[in-house]
Amino acid sequence: MAYIPQASLDNLKKYSYKGVDKSLLSQYVLNPFWNWFVTLWPLNVAPNTITLTGLSLVLMNFFTMLYYDLGYLAEKGGATGPPQWVYFTWAAGLFLYQSLDAIDGKQARRTGMAGPLGEMFDHGCDALNTTLEVILAARALNLGRSWWTVASQIATLANFYLTTWEEYHTGQLFLAAFSGPVEGILMIVAIYIISGIYGTEVWDTPILTFTKLDKIPFIAEHVQNVGLNEAFMAFGAIGLAFNILHSYANVRQASRAKGQPTVRPLLLLLPFVFSATLQVIWLSHPKWNHSAIIQSPLFVPFLCAWGLQFAHNVGRMILAHVTSTAFPIWDWMWIWSIIGVVDAQLPRILGRPPVIQSSYESTAVFVYMTLVISFLAYARFCTLVINDITNHLGIACFTVRKKDAEGNWRVAEKPAEKAKSS
């Protein structure tokens, strides 16, 4: 199918990025660093190349985790995670990702390449990074294969969905005083560093014991002494609630200014609720001659498939934003997930074993098929959208082009060539 209707292609030329960043840390600490960092990049380096470089660093971190986990799995049948020093590389990789993600827009303005393609590419990489960092952070927090990790996935994806939903309705990207792309990422960087110094077991330390508050009788009696990692999850839940209220306040204000209904946008949050519910029901299937997905090595590929489906969904939302088209509600990949859910829940529904996921081996095949199909669907989306945008606007994805005197896009000269011609 075509992702951009022919009648909406001209809307790409009308798009211009708008953003509001209220983070004091971003304005007074990070932005001066980013302004200097972007000057290190030659003007012939395309902004999307910088974005992809950042995502590549996160992928290296992710493959490092898989290397150690799968190596141990093959040898002993269980997973212990990477050695402590690896977490420092994760911290460095994520910090560099944040920096490169911040300067790609600055590079776009330096080279005159700012536009809808960069917006799509940037958000696409961010969507992929969201799931990858959930898995890595869960490993660093020693959460393992648990419902805490699932809760982290839901909360993190919900925050990203909210931001995209808000941008679609308001026309601009809002970053609050405490936002995921700034303070949230730096918190995860700090988690990696702490895990590198003390090991992941430190996060199992009861929070009252860690803070010495258990020595106060009233607190020790009335406050549950949960682990630091569980306390961090509670903090994330509070942050999600705050972001929901903040995002809706902005959407409500924008809708009122346009004379549009203020409640209807809330209904467009239901697609995320529906998709997340599907994944949770699938994971909560009763055991049938084998362990549940959440307790097996299939957990990570399952989360990755979920993340790719989410990236496809929010990618269509951003595309609708830059092309001024209708908000996407249905995703055909949900049909595949529904099949997986119904099959896994057959013991509860009909009291009979699953047809497809009747054994660990067959479940593994189905989960990996889900991963492959999700990847191919998202790759197809990216390919078609990039081709449509580049062909219609006459630009390139990874080549810097500038407008000449006649207003046509031309490949920018490299610094050496420019000096030679002059």
> How many helix segments?
16
Tell me the series of helices and strands, N- to C-terminal: EHHHHHEHHHHHHHHHHEEH
Q: β content, as a range?
A: under 5%
Q: How many strands, which pairing sense, and closed or not: the largest β-sheet? A: 2 strands, parallel
Distance between the termini: 48 Å
Q: Give the strand order, joined by hyphens, for the main sheet.
A: 1-2
Cα Rg: 23 Å
Oligomerization: single chain
Could you please describe the fold and organization of this structure?
The protein has 422 residues and is an all-alpha fold. The chain has one domain (6-421). It has 16 helices and four strands. Strands 1-2 form a two-stranded parallel sheet. A two-stranded antiparallel ribbon has the order 3-4.
What topology does this entry show?
Layout (H helix, E strand, L loop, with lengths): L18 E3 L2 H14 L9 H30 L7 H28 L4 H25 L6 H24 L2 E3 L4 H19 L8 H5 L5 H6 L5 H31 L5 H4 L2 H14 L15 H25 L9 H12 L1 H4 L10 H34 L7 E3 L5 E3 L3 H7 L1
Parallel strand pairs: 1-2
Antiparallel strand pairs: 3-4
Helix pairs in contact: 2-3, 2-4, 3-4, 3-6, 4-5, 4-12, 4-15, 5-9, 5-12, 11-13, 12-15, 13-15
In short:
With 422 residues, the chain is an all-alpha fold. It contains 16 helices and four strands. The strands form two sheets. Strands 1-2 form a two-stranded parallel sheet.
Keywords:
422 residues, mainly alpha, two-stranded parallel ribbon, two-stranded antiparallel ribbon, 3% strand, 4 strands
